[in-house]
């Protein structure tokens, strides 16, 4: 059996160690360890059906360590930043960001390392359509209740947002209308993230000419004149005006009052141009203003004495 040459073996092992040390030294000198930041896209995975997640950042900052040569060739796409959404529940959830790196690269920092997201169930419900008007019809015309097709629309979105919606609005321009309008109206007033179907409804608005009649004007006076004066006469011009309104309203209109004319403390005639007080909703008055004249006169200083029978005063 040949004998081992321990001296030669020791030299060989020492040479190998020296070569390894030299290789590590040369490698570190030529291609040393370094650090570099990367802005990596963040993905959510495993979201259950029927849930919506908001508030998840689009990217995270990753600081990686590796040889200078490796880091130089890396791009953000070589990393994967993932949040596991499989265990989410409705409300606010705090989740850990997991980052994987290429072989030989060590992730030393992730910012943020945890993220907070808002989780909502996706729900659906029907709500009525409410019509609002922009502008006014032509003079002498009135607008009746609108009809909508369809009267109910379908909402879909996050539960907390959908539950806050009780109706949805369709706005129609009726400025100067002289007859029934049929319009397509886009539905508005929804919070972001809630969809509606259909997004457009058909609105029919009856616009009818209103009947007209003439009614007297009643001037209204407020206050009392200065001491020593009294109201002698109150006149209004014109004293009759035309009133138009929907038939049920017009039937109840028998007169129209003026806006009160204040004569508090005055000592001379008062002439004012004042408006009229509408006696109901949808009433149109022509003219819309009248002139009120309040004529004052002084009170007698000494009332005349009564003469007793016989033509002489008694003593």
From TrEMBL:
<dbReference type="InterPro" id="IPR012505">
    <property type="entry name" value="YbbR"/>
</dbReference>
<protein>
    <recommendedName>
        <fullName>YbbR-like domain-containing protein</fullName>
    </recommendedName>
</protein>
<keyword id="KW-1133">Transmembrane helix</keyword>
<keyword id="KW-0472">Membrane</keyword>
<keyword id="KW-0812">Transmembrane</keyword>
<dbReference type="InterPro" id="IPR053154">
    <property type="entry name" value="c-di-AMP_regulator"/>
</dbReference>
<dbReference type="Pfam" id="PF07949">
    <property type="entry name" value="YbbR"/>
</dbReference>
<feature type="transmembrane region" description="Helical">
    <location>
        <begin position="9"/>
        <end position="26"/>
    </location>
</feature>
<feature type="region of interest" description="Disordered">
    <location>
        <begin position="296"/>
        <end position="315"/>
    </location>
</feature>
């Amino acid at each position: 059996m040949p004998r081992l040459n321990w001296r030669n073996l020791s030299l060989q092992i020492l040479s190998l160690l020296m070569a390894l040390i030299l290789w590590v030294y040369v490698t570190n000198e030529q291609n040393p360890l370094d650090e570099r930041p990367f802005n990596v896209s963040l993905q959510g995975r495993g979201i259950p059906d029927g849930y919506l997640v908001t508030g998840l950042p689009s990217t995270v900052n990753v600081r990686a360590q590796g040889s200078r040569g490796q880091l130089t060739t890396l791009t953000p796409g070589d990393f994967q930043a993932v949040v596991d959404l499989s265990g989410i529940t409705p409300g606010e959830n705090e989740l850990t960001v997991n980052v994987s790196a290429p072989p030989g690269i060590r992730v030393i920092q992730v910012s943020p390392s945890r993220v907070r997201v808002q989780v909502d169930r996706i729900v659906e419900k029907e709500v009525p359509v409410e019509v609002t008007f922009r502008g006014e019809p032509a003079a002498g015309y009135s607008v009746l209740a609108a009809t909508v097709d369809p009267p109910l629309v379908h909402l879909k979105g996050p539960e907390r947002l959908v539950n806050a919606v009780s109706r949805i609005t369709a706005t129609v321009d009726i400025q100067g209308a002289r007859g029934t309008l049929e319009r397509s109206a886009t539905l508005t007033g929804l919070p972001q993230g809630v969809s509606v179907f259909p997004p457009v409804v058909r609105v029919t608005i009856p616009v009818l000419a209103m009947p007209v009649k003439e009614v007297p004007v009643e001037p209204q006076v407020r206050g009392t004149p200065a001491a020593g004066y009294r109201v002698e006469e109150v006149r209004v011009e014109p004293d009759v005006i035309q009133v138009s309104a929907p038939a049920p309203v017009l039937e109840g209109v028998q007169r129209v009052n003026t806006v009160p004319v204040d004569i508090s403390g005055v000592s001379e005639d008062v002439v004012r141009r004042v408006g009229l007080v509408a006696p109901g909703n949808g009433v149109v008055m022509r003219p819309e203003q009248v002139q009120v004249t309040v004529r004052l006169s002084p009170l007698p200083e000494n009332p005349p004495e009564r003469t007793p029978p016989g033509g002489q005063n008694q003593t």
